[in-house]
Write a structure and sequence with these properties.
Distance between the termini of chain A: 45 Å
Number of helices of chain A: 12
Largest sheet of chain A: 5 strands, parallel
Number of domains of chain B: 2
Shape of chain B: globular
Structural class of chain A: alpha/beta
Structural class of chain B: alpha/beta
Radius of gyration of chain A: 19 Å
Helix content of chain B: 25-40%
Strand order of the largest sheet of chain B: 3-2-4-5-7-6-12
Shape of chain A: globular
Oligomer: heterodimer
Radius of gyration of chain B: 19 Å
Chain lengths: 334, 338
Amino acid sequence: MNPTLSPSPAAAALLRGSDRNILLGLYEKLVLIREFEERVKFLFLEGTMPGTIHQCQGQEATAVGVCAALRSDDFITSTFRGHGHALAKGLGVQEMLDELFGASTGCCKGKGGSMHMGNMDRGMVPGIAIVAGGIPLAAGMALAFKLQQRPQVVACFFGDGAVAEGAFHEGVNMAALWNLPVVLVCENNLYGASTRIDKVMKNPCVADRAAAYGFRGETVDGNDVLAVLAAAQRAVAECRAGQGPVLLELLTYRRTGHSRRDACHYQPKDEREAWFARDPIERFAAQLAERGDVTPADLAAIRARVEQQIAAAVAVAQRAPQPTLADLTTDVYA
Amino acid sequence: MKRQGIAEALRDGIAEEMTRDPSVFCIGEDIGVPGGWGGAFTVTLGLAEKFPGRIIDTPIAELGFTGVAVGAAMMGMRPIADVQYGDFLFLASDQLINNAAKLRYMSGGTVKVPLVMRAPIGATGRGSQHAQSMERYFTGVPGLKVVAVSTAYDAKGMLKAAVRDDNPVMIFEHKLLYGSKGARAEPGAVDATSEIPDDDYVVPLDRAVVRREGTHVTILGWLLMAHFAQAAAAQLAAEGIEAEVIDVRSLSPIDYETIGASVRKTGRVVIVEEGPKTGGVSAEIAAGIMEHCADSLQAPVTRVASADVPVPFTPILENAYRPDVPRIVAAVRQLVGS
C-alpha cells in the first residue's frame, strides 16, 4: 500500500529503448481515457447522459499498460469500472459514447450501458458488474484457448474488493490447477466502494495470494505506465508459453468517486495529496521529457487532438438514434 | 433399437455429440475419476477413457466451474456442465443468471453462450439439501431455456438438441428416473426406460408431448410427476374417467399450443408439481392457461403440489410431502365431478 515502490529497471529500459511513437501512443491513450472520463462526468452531472457511472480517473496507467502488452486477438474481461479498459483495448470513442447515451449505434446497441461496455470484435467481453464474476469467466475463456490450442491470452481486470469474493478463490484455483493463460490483474486502488482494504484484509498484499495457489504474483506501481507494461509483457509471455496464470497487483488510486456524486470524504486528505502527486499522466510526461526527444509542444498537440476527437464524438452521440421499442425483445436468444 | 435407461441414454448422447463435434466437452465434479462413479449418477461413466482430456474433473466449486463453462462457451466451446445435486445450483446461480443468461442481451446480441447445464432433482431420502425441485428458480430467467426429461428417449434427444443450441440450456433430471445401476441405484426408482433408435435424433426443446389421450380432463406434469400422472390416468380409466396426460417437458418456453389444444378438448386441468405449491412452475402454467384458453375452461385449474415446507427426511413425511398417485386421482375425481 505504500505508494513508493522501488523504481522498475524494466520500466527504465522501456523508456530508453522504445520507439518514440510507441511511447507517445501510450501517452495519447492515457490522456484519451482521462479526457473521456472528465467529459463523461460533465455530461452526466449536466443531466444529459442517463444511468450511473463508475469512473477511473487516476487509474489510467493500469488499463493502458496491460492492454499494450496484449495482441488485438487477445481478450480482456472488465468490471463496472470499465471505460478505461475499453479505450485501452481499442474500442472506439464513438461507439462508447453512443452506448453511454443509450443509442442503438452503441457498442452494445444501448442494452449494455456504462457497466457492460464491451465489443467482442475488439477482444473485450461486456463488463461483468458483479464483483469477481469475471474471474471464473476469464479462466473459462483461457481454458477454451488451451483446449483449442490457440495462442491467445486473457487479461482479467478486477479490483481489490474482488479478492474477498468466493469467485476469486474458485476461479483462481482452477486457473492455477490447469496452468491457464490468464493474467489476473488486480487494480488495487485501496478502496472497495468506500471501505479501505485494511478493514477487509488481514494481509493487504494481494500479490501474496498467488503463492498460496502455486503460481507467481507481483506487486507493481500501477501509476507508472511503463512499470505496468513491463510487468504485463512478462506475464503475457509466460501465459503464452503455457506457464500461466500470473497475478499482477497494480497499486493505484481513484481520484474520483466510486460512482456518481460520491465526494470521497472517506479518503484522507494527506492520502489523496500523496497519490495526486503520483498522477500517472504527469509522471509519464516527466519521464518522456527525460528522453530529450519529446517536447512540451508534442504533448500539448496530443492533448488538443484528443480533446477535439472527444468533442466531435460527443456531438455525434447526442444525436445518435435511440433504439425502437421493437428492440426491447430482440437479442435475448441466439 | 435398444432398451435403455436415462443414465445410459444420456451417456450415449454425450458420447455421440463429443464424437460429432470436437468443441463439446464435459466439466463437473467426480465425472471422470478412474475407478470413480462417472458423476453422481453414472452418466459419464467410461467417457474419460474414451475422450481423454475432454472430461474435466473440477474442484468442489460450483460457482467457479460454472463460470469456467460459461467463459469457455463464449469462446466457441460447447460445454456440458453438471452439478451432482440440483440444490448446488444456488452456488452457481450468479454465473448462470447474471452471466450465461444475460450476456447475449447486454452485448447487443454479439455474445453466444452455448452452455448445457444438467442437474438432478427430486426428494429421494436425502433430507432437505439434496432434494429440492430447482426448476422453478430458473424458468423465469430470460435468456435461459429450461427442460425436464422424464424418459430415456427424451433425455438423449433433448441433450443432443441442447448441445447443438446456441443458448444456455438447463436440463433437469430426476434421481428416481435415472435407472442407475450398482452402488448408484436408487431405492424407489421408477422405470423410465425407452426404446432408443440406433440413428441420430433430437427432441425439440420447446414442445410438450401428449403421453396419453383422453377427453374428460388434462393432467399436466413433468419428471417423476409425469409418470405418476400416467399411473393415475390408468386408475381413473377403470372408473370411466378418460384423462389426457401431457408431459410438459419444456418448462421455458412453455408449449401452450400443445397444452391449449388439450384444454380446449377437455375443459378441465390438473397440474401436478413436485415442489412447494407457492411460487411453483404450476402457478405460471395455470396463469398461462388463463391467458391462452380461459374460455375453454369449465372449472378452475387445480394444482397438486408439495407442501410449503423444506423437503423432510423421514420416509413417512417425505411421502406425505411429494404428490403421489392417490392424491392425483382424488384431485381429478373432484374436478371431474364438479
